[in-house]
Each structure stands twice: as C-alpha cells, then as structure tokens.
C-alpha cells in the first residue's frame, strides 16, 4: 500500500531540517510546531550545575519547557532525540523520541522512529523527511474500496496494522498517589514554600513554620485526592462504555473467511466486524457495509433521539467520517438494534480506533482543554512581576538598613529574604480559583455542567450570543398545520384533514413513506419532523419480525399501511388498486449538505418502484421537472415562510419496471434525486419555546447582541427573529442574495420583514434598526469573491440561514476575529463545530458531558445562557476582587514589616498566624461565596487588571494603607509617655507599642479592604447576603478591637502584645483614639471604590489623557465607519 499523498485532517509542511509545522487542513492554520533537539555537552554541564545547586535549576526548568530545551542542542529532525512541540496556543511540551520494530511495509524501515503527542502517534517518514500521523501511512479508501473487501484482513495484514496503530483503547491513566505527590511537589510553588519554611526556621519562627508545613501537607493531600478523583471519574466514564468480545472476519487460505472472537482492544482499522442483533456499545468508529442500525448518539451530540444508520453506498469519492456520518457508527454510542437479511450478518468496517475516534476526541478535549486566552490571567502575571519588583526594592532597603546597623550576616540575609515571602503571597494562585469553584458548583446545581472551568470567567465578557433555531429558540417538535397539494402546475386549496385526500394519491404515500422512523421496544421514534408528518397521515408502520430482532428475508424491511377506516371505504374489487401496504426498500437519510432525504418504496399491488423525496423547497425545486412546478411556487413559499412556517417540499418519480431490488441497493443518490415530479408543500409550525422571548429581551437589555445561525429557510428565520424579539417590529431587514452567474456574480439586497412600507427607504447600515439576513449560498460566494467584505457583513447581519454545519463554525470564527467574545447555544447535532469554536459553547443535552461543547445544559431552553453570563460575571469580578485583596494584603504586611524593621521590632509568631491563617484565609475564601444577581446589567465587568481605570483606584488604596500606618505611628510618636525602642538593641523587640499599633491597624486594614472588595451589585448579590463573610468580618473586627482596647493578660501574652493596665488612663485613651484610623480608612476606602473605581468619568478622563481616537476592538471600529459596501450591486426596497 503506497503512502498517502493527501492528508486526513492534517497537512504537514517542513520549514527547515530542524523545524516542522503541522497544519490543520480544515482550518488552514498551524496546529503545532515540532523542533528537533539532541543531547550534547550542554546537557552534561546542566546536570552538573543542577547537582551543585541542589536541583533548584531543575525545578525552574521543569516549570518552563522552553527553558528546559536550552540544555539540548538543536538538530535535524531525522537525528533528533528530543522534540519540543509547541501548540498554536504557545504551550510547549518536551517529548522523547522512541523506536519501534515494525514488519517491513514498502517504504518503512524495520526500525521506525516515532513520538506520541497528546495520544496521537507521529511516525518519521524518511523519504518525505517529515513526521506523519499513523492515519497517513496507509492510502485513503474510496467508498468502493471499503465495500470491495468482504473477507477481512489476513494475519500478516493485521499484524502490520496493529504494529502501526497500536491497541484500540482510550486509556485514562490513574496515577499512583506517590507519582501525583512527586509531580505536585516538584514545582516552583512548593519550592518557594520550602524556601520560606527554611527561612522561618532559621529565623526561629518555629510555630508559624510548623503550621505552614501542616497546612501545605493538608493542601497537597486534598489536591492529590481531588486530582485522583477526577482521573477516576473520567476513567470510569471511559470504562463504562466498553464492550466485551467482538466477532471479526479473518481471511484464511480457505475459500470462506473465519469468524473469530477477539477483545475490542485488538481491533485495527480495516477489520471487518459482525454487529450483534441489539444492545451493543461500539468499541471504535466503524462504517456500516450492510443492513441498518439504530443507535443512540447522545453521548456525542446531546441528541437523545435514536438515529438510523444505513449501509454505505458505492462511489469513487474518498470516505470521510464527517461527510458520511449517516453511514458511520461512532465509538461509545449505544447500538440499540440492527436489521439484517435472511441468513446474513450485518457487517461494518473499522475506520478509526483508540484516541483517533470521536469518543477519543471527547476524552482528549477533557484531558487537554483549549487554554482560555482571557486577559486577566496574563495581567495577573504582570502584576505578580510588579509585586516582585516592589519586593526587590524592599530587599534593597532592608539590606541598607541592617548593614548600616552593622548587623550580623545571618540577620541581614534572613531579614532581606523574608521580604520576598511577604510581598509575593504563595496562596495567590489558589485564591484566584475560589470564585470559579463556587460558580461551577452553583451551575451544577441548576443542571449546567462544565468540562473547562476557566471558561466560566470568559462567560463574564460575552459580547454576542449566537443561537441555533430549531430545538434551541423553538421547540423540537413540529405541528403540522396543513398540506398544499399541487396539480397541473397549480397549488390546490390547503388541506387540514388528511382523510379528505385520496389514500391512493402519491402525495399521501410520500408523507407515509419518506421518513427514517423506526420502532424501538414497540415505540415509534425518530426525527421530530418525520414523526409529525407521519402522525398527520394516520397511517401505521410495521417492521416485520421486530420481536425477532427485525430479521427479514423479503424485499421490504419496513411496511406502512393506511388506517383501517380508509381501507374499509374500498368496496369494489375493480378499485382494489389501492396500495394497502407499501414497503420501504431503501432510505437515503437526511443530509444537511443536500438538505433533503429520499426513499425507494414499492407497493405489493404495483409492478414498479417509486422514489419519494422531501426537503428544503429551494433544493426540491432544482430536482423537479420544470413543467411540474406551479407558476407561483416562489410567491407561495415566500408567503408561508414570511409568516414563520416551516415549509417542506415533496416530490416523487416512478422508477422503471426493470428496476430491481438489487438495483435499489446499488443506485446512487443523485440518480434518484433528479427529474422528480412536484407533489406539494407541507406547512408546519415550529412554536417558540416559552423562555425564548424573555431571554432575548434580557440579553438586549444587557447590550449583548443576538444573532441566529440556522439551517432553516431565511424567511422562516426572519419571522422567528421577529417573534422572539431578536428583530423588533420597527426594524428593517434586507436579504442579501447572490446571482447564479459564477463568472460575474452580483450581490443584491432586498427589503423584507414586518416594516414593509410602500415608500422607498434610505438604507442606513449605521442604524441599529437596519439588519442584513444572508443564506449559506450567498455567504460562500461573498467569501470567495469579496473576502474583505466579510467583516462588514458580520457586524450588520442578524440572520444566517440555510447554513451548513461547517459554515456555522465559520461565522463563529470570523466573529472572534473581530474581537467579539462569542457564545453559541445549540442542540449539539449540527452545531458541534460552532459550539466547539465558540468561547462559550452550550449544548442543550441531557448528558453531563458531550464532545459538542465545553458547557452542557440540562435546562432545555436558552435561559441557561443567562445563568452562565450571570455566573461568569460574578466569577470574573470575584477573581478580580480576590486578586486585588491578596495583592493589597501582601503590600499591607510589606509596609508593616518595613516600618517595624526601621523601629527595631517585628511581628510575632502568633501575630503572623492570626493574620495569614485566620484573617486572610477566612476572608479570601468567603469573599467568593456571593452569588450572582437576578438580572444582567448593561455594562460588562472589566477584563484588564492592569488597565489604568483599575490600577489608579488600586494605587490609591495602597497609598491610603501606607499613609494610615504612618499616621498611626506619628500619633504614637506624639505621646508624651511613649519611649521608642533604643537603637542599640541587639535583638528585635516584638512586645512593644510600635508592634501593637501597626499590628492592630494592619488587621483592621485587612478586614476593611476585604469588605470593600466584596461589594455586590451590579455583578454580585448584595454583601448582606454573604452571611459567612459578614459573620467573619464582624467577628474579626470585634476580636481585633478587643486586642487593641482591653486584652486580658493571657491573650496579650499569647499574641505578644502590651497588656492594658487599669491605672494608665492616658495610655488607655490612646488605644481608644486609635479607632479613628480604621474608621477614617473605611470611609476613604469605600469612597475610592464608590466614586472612583469603575466610574465612567474616570474612564473618559483616561481616554482624554491618552488621546484615544478609536476603539481597540475591531468590530467597534467597523461600526463607527460609514458602511458603503462597494461590492453591492443592487438595493431593492
């Protein structure tokens, strides 16, 4: 078998000998870059260096793989021992090259060099001098090639494929606690903790160091248990969908192949398997070669409706699992039932195994989630660097201070290094996740599940909400309103009662047969549209032998027949031509690309077969003979779709009497779906869900733009948009269409919608009341002819109709390129691409996790998006608040320590413990307990931590903290009874007035700032609803006040404070007067947050100072421009 020249999903381009870029063929962008390295003298020097410095460089390099690669020398990929793989998000991974011995396969050497990256195997191809995926080693198969080999693989072929592809397993490793502990401990955070603890032990802060050690151990154990539980949960999810032995055909020297039983783990692509009659979990992705299958794919798509899979048809086109998904059974899905002929089995060929399957993609998306590029995380790193800069400044001051005092070298080193442990809080990363964890828990309680928690913060910045229509904005079910038959190129009167139509008419028979319904456990099930149409006919359906696993040896596997009262009307034998039973010979399932479905059926009373087709009226029109179409076809279609009806067109054609059952199984679809006779229209109503209009209104009030991306008719979509409030009654809609001329394509706008006055209208696309609607065909032509016009179109379009699944994903991607934060809500079936591409993709599904989207909602309506946005804003604001609080907590302690150093004093062990463990921890944890408000506000929360409008209030708070500490010290120095600590002391004096003043004032500051950053509205509930925080803050305030005013002797000794004595009234009054400082600080801190932070006047002042002339977001700049649309040829009003 030759090597593949085309590529499945990946296009690999080698830039240089040592670098190779792997391109995604579908998205035309770099997926990841491979760089080759090998060990050299640098590696030896690095090892010696690490040994001499007790492994510290190793810890640093382990945290930064790009730095780790510096110990190797760059080399050609063909000689590389180590590979640095950098994905398109900039995440680096170092991977060891491996060697495997494989049976000789044409161009492959015996020893093959390969590497595994995120459970995908890449093999070095020496002739092409590049790495290729294992799927590329063997030629891609056409449909005919897949159908040809009915004998399975022989042993040698199987062995080669097994060596290349490996075992068919999706393995989620459950690491031992020891391994997890080593990985947990060997990072910079724990190295910093160890450094801090050693420093405190040297400084004789024994109790504090021991408490931190115990807390670190407790935190590590908790983290290990949580990590292990998550791995076990995912492992159990994967294992739960495993099956037992599988029957496989093996080619043997005998004439007939052997059917053997093997473990699912031993399956390889190319294997021919025998599907059991019922209740089978697919172990891999297979393509159906014979028979039919009914499967439940809810684990992948979120759709709980059983899906009928049909056998693959012949053809010369290349097989693609996505294009031919109606013939593909995916790993992990539940096969409910198979239908097979006489003595024959139902065969399927394995096409993908292991992590290459769709189920493997789900697991990989959980194991390796797409990193969320929220500015907050990048800004937090900048701020930590800022804190480290402050720490360096403080260290320099300490160095100067202690050297000038001729202090011991040990004291100089300890005091200087201690500043770093104070300014850069080790608990900062953990504290920042508190808001997300609380939000995730609240979402789970209301039935919204998330496999990527960092995306919850992204929900807080959503700027545009995209929705599918059917099943999302509207109900899944369709109500048949009436049918409109056609005769002699004219539409007849609408019919609401099917019993008034002739049972023998082709129109009735088309409605009864053209569907993909099936019976499961005696219950008729299938697509809601098919169910509605079939119920309207009142016919009955039987699947012969359904109780015996649907075994059939007749020409018609499924039979439909009219109701008994219709048959009883036929009394005269000469009229007994009515087809009492019609057998459905073959189905061509609905295709979102073709926008139609077809069946071949035969009545036992007729000598020929009939093909019936139903689908989108625009598509059916092109398949019908022109002489069978009514003259007012387009007018009638526009009339009903503009009123919001779902319109389905129906057609048929008689097949030749020589057309046999075998011909029906082999005929190509395009042969059937041409030269049809038009029968009529089905007029269906797809009512809005009750929650849709209120949610759209809520989003509009919150200044969140809403758009619809649907596969339905454009006029139906516009009508639904008016009904749900996406378009208002006084809005004008202009439908963009493209001419049929592929050489000189013209683009035209035609006014439509509710507000269609007779006078001409001046189109103003800068107005919010003018919208564009575009269909998938026009979208493709515009992208091809005028790609530069796409951004202009996107910022003004509200309706995207007749869009195929890949086009939906394109819209989402292009919106993101315009700096929109995009949410997408869909039912998970045809929206998978768009849901995965969106920043916030929500699949309406009863499952807790699906491959469709990072969020899965059991709330089966779009109200889930409001809940997500509320929680996202709440989590984002909480993350900001906790970060600012933790930063200020560090700086408050930094000021306290520097002033105390200056006064020959320090904080005591219990004082540090009280601040770090009781005050800070309790407040930081309870800040995040505030839930979201009930309503969305029009303003979005800030996204940048280092923006001037956030930094200025923060700097003011920092300044206030420093000034109040200095003010308290100044007040102390003014007391006549105060005696400062002498300059000639050899050891720092903890029990002192300096210590008492700064300790108590700083404790108040921690509580004040936590309260200030716990403000509620508009993004969180009011502070009073956070009972735990209020209780903690009040309790701590009372306790600190007691420590300041009148602590008992034992408590004063424990906390190393100066006790109050009854005979020292002047000193007692000084303690009381000290309460002025926290009172004033509270007023000033609240004022800064209330009148400066997040205020529009501050934002305008900053913009004025920066002379900001245009918005930073692309879509805002486009909206400000005068849209002239030079590519537009005609505007019709």
Automatic annotation (TrEMBL):
Record family assignment: Belongs to the cation transport ATPase (P-type) (TC 3.A.3) family. Type V subfamily.
A Pfam family matched in the record: E1-E2_ATPase
Family matches, as InterPro entries: ATPase_P-typ_cation-transptr_N, ATPase_P-typ_cyto_dom_N, ATPase_P-typ_P_site, ATPase_P-typ_TM_dom_sf, ATPase_P-typ_transduc_dom_A_sf, ATPase_P-type_domA, HAD-like_sf, HAD_sf
EC number of this enzyme: 7.2.2.-
Catalyzed reactions per annotation: ATP + H2O = ADP + phosphate + H(+)
GO MF: ATP binding; ATP hydrolysis activity; ATPase-coupled monoatomic cation transmembrane transporter activity; metal ion binding; P-type transmembrane transporter activity; polyamine transmembrane transporter activity
Protein's membrane topology: Multi-pass membrane protein
Keywords: ATP-binding, Endosome, Magnesium, Membrane, Metal-binding, Nucleotide-binding, Phosphoprotein, Translocase, Transmembrane, Transmembrane helix
Name under which the protein is recorded: Cation-transporting ATPase
Residues in Cation-transporting P-type ATPase N-terminal domain copies: 148-200
SUPFAM superfamilies assigned to the protein according to its UniProt record, in alphabetical order: Calcium ATPase, transduction domain A, Calcium ATPase, transmembrane domain M, HAD-like, Metal cation-transporting ATPase, ATP-binding domain N
Domain P-type ATPase A: start-end pairs: 261-366
Transmembrane stretches, start-end: 45-64, 177-199, 205-225, 383-403, 419-438, 886-904, 910-929, 950-973, 993-1013, 1025-1045, 1072-1092
Subcellular location: Late endosome membrane; Membrane
Enzyme superclass (EC): translocase
GO cellular component, one term: late endosome membrane
């Amino acid at each position: 078998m030759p090597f593949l020249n085309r590529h499945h999903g990946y296009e690999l381009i080698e830039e240089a000998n040592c670098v190779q870029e792997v391109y995604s063929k579908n998205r035309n962008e770099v997926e990841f870059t491979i760089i080759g390295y090998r060990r050299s003298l640098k590696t030896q020097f690095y090892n010696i260096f690490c040994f001499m410095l007790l492994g510290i460089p190793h810890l640093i390099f382990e945290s930064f793989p790009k730095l780790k690669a510096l110990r190797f020398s760059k080399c050609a990929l063909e000689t590389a021992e180590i590979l640095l793989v950098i994905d398109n998000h900039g995440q680096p991974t170092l991977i060891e090259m491996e060697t495997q011995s494989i049976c000789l396969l044409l161009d492959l050497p015996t020893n093959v060099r390969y590497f595994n990256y995120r459970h995908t195997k890449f093999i070095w191809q020496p002739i092409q001098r590049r790495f290729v995926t294992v799927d590329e080693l063997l030629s891609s198969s056409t449909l005919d090639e897949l159908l040809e080999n009915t004998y399975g693989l022989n042993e040698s072929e199987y062995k080669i494929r097994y060596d290349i592809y490996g075992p068919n397993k999706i393995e989620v490793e459950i690491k031992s606690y020891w391994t997890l502990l080593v990985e947990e401990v060997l990072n910079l955070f724990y190295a910093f903790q160890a450094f801090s603890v050693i420093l405190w032990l040297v400084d004789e802060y024994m109790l504090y160091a021991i408490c931190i050690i115990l807390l670190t151990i407790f935190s590590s154990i908790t983290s290990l248990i949580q990590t292990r539980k998550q791995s076990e949960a995912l492992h159990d999810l994967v294992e739960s969908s495993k099956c037992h032995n599988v029957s496989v055909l093996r080619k043997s020297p005998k004439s007939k192949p052997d059917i053997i039983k093997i473990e699912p783990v031993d399956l390889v692509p190319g294997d021919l398997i025998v599907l059991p009659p019922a209740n089978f979990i697919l172990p891999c992705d297979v393509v159906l070669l014979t028979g039919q299958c009914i499967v439940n794919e809810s684990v992948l798509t979120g759709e709980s409706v059983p899906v009928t899979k049909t056998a693959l048809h012949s053809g010369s086109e290349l097989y693609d699992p996505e294009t031919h998904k109606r013939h593909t059974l995916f790993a992990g899905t539940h096969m409910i039932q198979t239908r097979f002929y006489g003595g024959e089995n139902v065969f399927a060929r394995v096409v993908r195994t292991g992590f290459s399957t769709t189920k493997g993609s789900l697991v990989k998306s959980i194991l390796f989630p797409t990193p969320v590029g929220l500015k907050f995380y990048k800004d937090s790193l900048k701020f930590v660097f800022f804190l480290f800069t402050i720490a360096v400044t403080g260290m320099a001051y300490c160095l100067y201070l202690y050297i000038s005092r001729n202090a011991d070298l040990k004291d100089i080193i300890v005091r200087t290094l201690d500043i770093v442990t104070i300014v850069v809080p080790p608990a900062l990363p953990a504290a920042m996740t508190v808001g997300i964890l609380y939000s995730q828990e609240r979402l789970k309680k209301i039935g919204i599940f998330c496999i990527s928690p960092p995306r919850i913060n992204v929900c807080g910045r959503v700027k545009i909400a995209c929705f599918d229509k059917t099943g999302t904005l509207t109900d899944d079910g369709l109500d048949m309103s009436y049918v409109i038959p056609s005769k002699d190129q004219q539409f007849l009167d609408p019919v609401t009662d099917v019993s008034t139509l002739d049972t023998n008419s082709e129109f009735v028979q088309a409605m009864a047969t053209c569907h993909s319904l099936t019976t499961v456990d005696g219950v008729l099930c299938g697509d809601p549209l098919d169910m509605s149409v079939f119920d309207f006919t009142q016919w009955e359906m039987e699947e012969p032998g359904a109780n015996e696993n649907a075994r059939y040896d007749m020409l018609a596997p499924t039979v439909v027949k009219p109701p008994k009262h219709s048959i009883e009307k036929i009394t005269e034998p000469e009229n007994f031509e009515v087809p009492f039973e019609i057998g459905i010979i073959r189905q061509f399932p609905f295709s979102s690309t073709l926008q139609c479905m077809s069946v071949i059926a035969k009545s036992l009373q007729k000598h020929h077969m009939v093909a019936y087709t139903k689908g989108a009226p625009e598509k059916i029109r092109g398949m019908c003979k022109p002489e069978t179409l009514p003259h007012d076809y387009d007018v009638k279609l526009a009339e009903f779709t503009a009123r919001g009806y779902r319109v389905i067109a129906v057609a048929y054609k008689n097949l030749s009497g020589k057309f046999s059952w075998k011909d029906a199984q082999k005929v190509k679809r395009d042969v059937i779906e041409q030269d049809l006779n038009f029968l009529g229209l089905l007029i269906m109503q797809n009512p809005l869900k009750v929650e849709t209009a209120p949610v759209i209104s809520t989003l509009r009030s919150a200044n969140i733009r809403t758009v619809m991306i649907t596969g339905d008719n454009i006029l139906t979509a516009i009508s639904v948009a008016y009904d749900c409030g996406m378009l208002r009654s006084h809005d004008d809609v202009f439908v963009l269409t493209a001419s049929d001329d592929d050489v000189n394509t013209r683009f035209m706008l035609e006014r439509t919608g509710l507000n269609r006055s007779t006078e001409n209208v001046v189109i103003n696309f800068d107005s919010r009341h003018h919208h564009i609607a575009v269909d998938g065909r026009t979208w493709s032509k515009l992208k091809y002819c005028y790609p530069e016009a796409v951004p202009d179109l996107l910022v003004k379009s509200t309706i995207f109709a007749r869009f195929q699944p890949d086009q939906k994903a394109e819209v989402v991607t292009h919106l993101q390129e315009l700096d929109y934060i995009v949410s997408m809500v869909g039912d998970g079936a045809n929206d998978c691409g768009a849901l995965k591409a969106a920043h916030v993709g929500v699949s309406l599904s009863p499952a807790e996790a699906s491959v469709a989207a990072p969020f899965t909602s059991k709330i089966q309506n779009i109200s889930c998006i409001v809940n997500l946005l509320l929680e996202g804003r709440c989590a984002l604001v909480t993350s900001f608040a906790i970060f600012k609080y933790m930063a200020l907590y560090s700086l408050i302690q930094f000021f306290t320590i520097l002033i105390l150093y200056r006064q020959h004093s320090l904080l005591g062990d219990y004082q540090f413990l009280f601040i770090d463990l009781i005050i800070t921890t309790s407040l930081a944890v309870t800040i995040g307990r505030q839930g979201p408000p009930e309503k969305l506000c029009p303003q979005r929360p800030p996204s940048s931590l280092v923006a001037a409008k956030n930094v200025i209030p923060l700097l003011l708070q920092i300044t206030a903290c420093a000034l109040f500490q200095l003010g308290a010290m100044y007040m102390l120095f003014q007391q006549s009874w105060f005696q400062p600590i002498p300059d000639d002391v050899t050891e720092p004096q903890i029990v002192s007035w300096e210590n008492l003043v700064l300790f108590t004032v700083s404790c108040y500051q921690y509580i004040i700032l936590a309260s200030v950053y716990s403000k509620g509205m508009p993004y969180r509930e009011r502070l009073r609803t956070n009972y735990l925080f209020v209780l903690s803050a009040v309790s701590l305030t009372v306790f600190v006040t007691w420590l300041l005013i009148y602590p008992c002797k034992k408590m004063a000794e424990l906390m190393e404070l100066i006790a109050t004595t009854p005979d020292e009234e002047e000193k007692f009054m000084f303690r009381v007067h000290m309460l002025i400082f926290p009172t004033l600080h509270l007023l000033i801190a609240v004022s800064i947050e209330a009148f400066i932070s997040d205020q529009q006047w501050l934002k305008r002042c900053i913009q004025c100072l920066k002379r900001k002339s245009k918005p930073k977001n692309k879509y805002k700049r486009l909206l400000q421009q005068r849209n002239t649309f030079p590519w537009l040829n005609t505007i019709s009003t």
